[in-house]
Amino acid sequence: MKKKKLLKALLIVVVVIVVVVVGLIINFRYQVNKYLATLEPEERLLSEISILMALKGYDNKKAVDKAIEKCKEAIEINPNSAKAYSQLGNLYRTKYRTKDMFKKAETSWKKAIELDPTYPEPHYNLGWYYSLEERYDEAIKEFQKTLELDPGYKGIQKRIERTEFEKLEKELKGLRAKDSKELTQKDKERIAYLEKETDKRSSEWMEKAGITDEDLIREGKKYGFTKEDLGL
Question: What's this model's pTM, rounded to 2 decimal places?
Answer without folding.
Answer: 0.71
